[in-house]
Each structure stands twice: as C-alpha cells, then as structure tokens.
Amino acid sequence: MQTMWAGRFEKNLDAKVNDFNSSISFDARMFSQDIKGSLAHAAMLCAQHILTQEEYTAITDGLCAVLEDLQSGKLAFDPVAEDIHMFVEAELTKRIGAPGKKLHTARSRNDQVALDLRMYLMDEAAAVSDMLLSLEEVLLKKADAYAETILPGYTHLQRAQPVTFGHHLMAYANMFARDLDRLADCKERMAVSPLGACALAGTTYDTDRQMTAETLGFDEPCPNSLDGVSDRDFVIEMICALAMVMMHLSRFSEEIILWCSWEFKFIELDDAYATGSSIMPQKKNPDVAELIRGKTGRVYGDLMAILTVMKGLPLAYNKDMQEDKEAVFDALDTVKLCLPVFTKMIDTMTVLSDNMRAAAAKGFINATDCADYLTKKGVPFRDAYKITGKLVGYGVKNGKTLEDMTMEEYKAASDVFDTDVYDAIDLMACVNKRTSFGGTAPDSVYDQIADMKTRLNL
Q1: Residue 300 pLDDT
Q2: Which of 277, 278, 414, 444 is catalytic?
Q3: Active site residue 436
Q4: Exposed end of the chain (fewer CB within 10 Å): N or C?
C-alpha cells in the first residue's frame, strides 16, 4: 500500500510493520469526529481564500458522502489503512480527485488526532454523564422509598449506629454526583482546540484558528502549538474520572454482594441480575456486582498505562502517544458496559426491610444514644461512656440487649437512669433524633433528596 507520506522513502513499508504501526483497528470509531473536524478546517481554508469555493464545495460534498456511507455501512474501513485520518483523506481523494489533496493544507495528523480525540471524549463524557444521571434517578427513588427503613450502619464492618437505608443510598448518590462534577470539569478543560497547531510549530498560512474552534464547539484554540499536539492531560483526566466512577461502583457492588448473602440477607437481587451454579442448585450468585468489582481493576490498569506512556516523553508528538486511544477507549467501554446493568440491578432489587431492622436490633448500636442520655442528665461524657460500656459488657455476658435490660439492671450501673431511657434508646428514636445537617433522620434524608434533585436538575 502506498502511504500518504511515501515521498521521502524508496521502499514500501513492510507489511508486518504496517500492521504494527496502524491504528485503524481502534481509531476508526472516531470517523464522525474526524470528518466533522475536516469540514470545519475546509470551511476555514475557504474563508481565508486558501481554497477556492469550487474546491471547498467538492471537499464538503465528498466528506458528507463518505460520512453517510460509513454511517450506513455502505463503506467499510480499509484494514490496511494506517489510521482513520489517512483512510478518510484517501477515500475523499479517490472520489473527488485533486481537491481532496488540498484538504490537509495548514494542518498535520498531529493536531488532527489531538482534535479528533478531544471531540470524541467530549461526546463520550456527555454519554457517561447521562448514564450516571439515570443511576442517580434510581438512587433518589430508592432513597425516598426507604428513608424511614432502619438498618445497622457499620464502621470497620462492625455494627456501629442505626441509620436509614435511604441515608445509606444517599451517600452513594453524593459519590456519583462528584463523578458528574469531575466529568464536567474534565470536559471543560478538553474544550481547547489544537486544530491549526499543525505538526508542532503552527503554519505559515494565514489561518483563523478561532473560527475552527468556535465551529467545532470549543471554547478557544490552544495558546501554544507545541502543547496543543503533545498534551494528553485530558486523556489522563478522563480515565482518572472513569476510574473513580468504577471505584464507587465497586464499593457499592461490594455491599450488594454482602447484603444478598445469607449472613446479611438485607436485599434480594432480581433473577434477571443474578446467576446460578453449574453444580449447586441452591446458589444465586451476584455475578453482576462481582464482575463490576473485577472490571474496576481493568480501568485502573488503563490509567496506569497512559500515565506510564506519558511520563518520559519529550516534546512534541511521539508515536508512543498512539497508545493513549486503546487505554481510554477501553476505560470508556468498560464504564459504559457497567453503568446501565448496575442501574437496573439496583432498580429491580428487593429490599428486605424486616431483616435490616432485625440486624439493627443486635450489636448494641444504640449504645451511643444511651451514653448521650446520661450526658443530657449531667453526667460527663467520659463517665457516661464508661457506664454504658459496662452495660454492654453485662449484656454480652448475659445475652441481653439494652432494650431487654430491666430498670434494676440500669440502676445498678447508675442511679441517673430512669424509665425514659427506653425512649432514648428506641432505634427509631435514635434515628429520628439525628437531625443535624446531613444526618440520618428521615426528614434530613428527604431534604438531601430534594437538594440532590435540584443540584442535578432532576
């Protein structure tokens, strides 16, 4: 195959080297962005009288026809093409002749690939954000339904204090809201156009980079041509944001895996989102959650790959940077695979409220409220803490919870106790009293839901 850059060379590229060098197998997905960028570039060249109107019309008509044929499947990608940029240009030139050879005036593949990738990732950031918003809608719906459902809150995976399931879900809603913020922030820094930076030094042609930037939806052209072609911070930021999405999905998945085990049995997964065993007929496995937990490591690997690729590169473009696309594409594909199925799994799961409440009744998770009861009666907190600790120790030895203990047993620990202690340690009362901003009280959870809907425009 004759390459676009063959003028300097006396031999054709070795077939195996061409395969090794080629990126068409993975960058073909950017064909619409590549053609959109070329259309904007051609319009600018015409406006600057670098192309004639006739040449511009031929190029525009040809590019639109190539785009239509690629979208319909009428035109297939050439597997021996070096990359999507050369494929589109070669196909255009084959169709319209000489004007197609003028399209690449005042640009390089270096700024072209940086442009395509920025445009592609801006589109994909919006797509992932839409998926996160769908997950947020499900979480807010579930949080509202279970704002008054008690379950044990944990620290160190030990029962700690009573919370509501709605409050627990809102913790994840806040995590994913931060992911949305990160994607928006990442997208904002992507919105700088490298088109016109050319190979590294700009061009001698009288181009209008502001025009192409505005046409393509960028905020501005990059202010430095060297940085424009060699910057891949936006790729790293994107994968980092995606890695954090996966980290949050993985944490949630871990809890789902625990909750649907017989040891917890707080939830039941819908049959459509669980699998069975080939040998044990009783099994119902949380494979969706487990796979998401596992795929998190894959996205982490993508992040480490691009960080390692970029860590020692001198300015400006180096072929190493071709490795950026497979990493970021894989991270995107993985997140976009996980989010919809995770969202449906959460939406269809059954919450076993009675089991949550039964678990909350054990483990002395109202001990802090017992100590608070004493401090409100004038007992110094450290003394109240010690008295309550002794009561817990007594309960453990005698198989009693704080609710089960008689007033005589309470009085033996401290004369300050009175019958109103039973109201103070009631689990629902323990939850209802936590009305501090962001607390687990149902009214607080409802406020959190309303605030989140406002924040996300839901």
Answers
A1: 98
A2: 277
A3: no
A4: C
CA 315 to chain centre: 30
119-154 tens-digit pLDDT: 999 999 999 999 999 999 999 999 999 999 999 999
Phi then psi dihedrals of residue 266, to 5 deg: -85, -25
Among residues 49, 156, 278, 436, the one annotated as catalytic is 156
Helix (H, G, I), strand (E, B) or coil at 381: helix
Instruction: State yes or no: is 167 an active-site residue.
Output: no
pLDDT digits (tens, 9 = 90+) for 390-420: 999 999 999 999 999 999 999 999 999 999 9
How is residue 160 annotated by DSSP? E
Cα(206)–Cα(209) distance, integer angstroms: 10
**Under 8 Å between Cβ of 83 and 34:** no
Instruction: Report CA-CA distances (Å) from 399 to 1, 319, 389, 391.
Output: 82, 69, 15, 12
CB 306, CB 324: distance < 8 Å? yes
Residue 80, CA atoms < 13 Å, CB-side half-sphere: 9
Q: What is the pLDDT of residue 326?
A: 96
CA distances from 207 to 118, 229, 258, 348 (A): 21, 17, 60, 55
Question: What's the CA gap between 180 and 190, in Å, rounded?
Answer: 15
Segments of the chain scoring below 50 in pLDDT:
1, 5
Q: Say whether the peptide bond before residue 126 is cis (omega within 30 degrees of 0).
A: no
Q: How many residues does the chain have?
A: 458
* 39-119-235 Cα angle (round to 5): 145
Task: Please check whether residue 143 is in contact with residue 348, taking contact to mean a CB–CB distance below 8 angstroms.
Answer: no
Helix-strand-coil percent breakdown of the chain, rounded to 5? 65, 5, 30
First CA to last CA across the chain, in angstroms? 53
Residue 405 φ then ψ, to 5°: -70, 145
